[in-house]
Amino acid sequence: MSHVDTVNTMVATLTERLKSTIKRSRKSVFLRDDFTRLGATYRQLSRALSQLQKERVVIRAGHGLYMRPTVSDVEQGIKEVKRRLGSRVRREVTINGVTVQLGTPTAPVNKQDVQDRRKLSMARRITEKFPLTVIRQRSLDNMDRWQSNGVWVSAFEEWRKLMTEGSDDQVLTIMTGEDQTANRLRQSAPYAGLLTQAEVEAI
Q1: What residues pair up with 14 in beta bridges, in sequence order?
Q2: How large is the average pLDDT for residues 151-162?
Q3: Last residue of some domain: 102, 137, 162?
């Protein structure tokens, strides 16, 4: 069995375990952290959750937040989220296509923070959708083209070394991590073009 087949089998098994866990639960609202005990990597769990969204086992209601599809009424959804996260919860929640802000934000919205979160979300979406071999090759191709066109920044040197010499875990850590180094490098991410314009706009 090839490595790809092995990974796909692991994800399929995880998806079934995850589906069983959700169906047995009495909860209507789930956090990503609820499923970490299954022992999957971040990427494997993301792929499994993505498959369950396609199957309408759960729907994504926000960052790391999922609901049963039966929670379609906005007011009902808000009540379920508050029941799960507490009445003083402060976060954006999307229910049946409607995004609402629960609670008063603790501070004015920082546009750079919003942009940083979008770049992180896009990177996570890319790692869910594509194998690292594709991400590495697209990144290197982009950087070669940009360099030949005279477009270059110092961060590309770090990306080139990472994409050619870094382990899969190191690449994923930078693409999906939340530390200062990962955030800095994502400002000059080389894997542009993997997501469609519609996917980018939806993030």
Answers
A1: none
A2: 92
A3: 102
Query: Is it the case that residue 198 has pLDDT exceeding 80?
Result: no
Which of 39, 71, 102 corresponds to the end of one domain?
102
The whole-chain average pLDDT of the chain stands at 86
Structure tokens at 110: 């920082």
* pLDDT tens by residue, 86-138: 888 888 888 877 888 888 665 565 677 778 888 999 999 999 999 999 999 99
| pLDDT of res. 182 | 92
As given in the structure block, the two tokens for residue 148 are 């030949």
Signed CA dihedral, 196, 183, 129, 48: sign only? negative
Q: Three-state secondary structure along 61-125?
A: EECCEEECCCCCCHHHHHHHHHHHHCCCCCEEEEECCEEEEECCCCCCCCHHHHHHHHHHHHHHH
Report the number of distinct structural domains present in the chain: 2
Q: What is the dihedral of CA 170, 176, 181, 185, to 10 degrees?
A: 100
What tokens were used for 181? 């180094």
- Pair 61, 91 in one domain: yes
**Exposed, middle or buried: residue 188 (CB in 10 Å: 0-12, 13-18, 19+)?**
middle
**Cα–Cα dist 23/40, whole Å:** 19
Do 26 and 57 sit in the same domain of this protein?
A: yes
Return the structure tokens found at 159. Answer: 């990306």
Instruction: Label residue 64 left, alpha or beta by phi (over 0 means left) and psi (-120 to 50 means alpha).
Output: left
Range of the domain at 196: 111-202
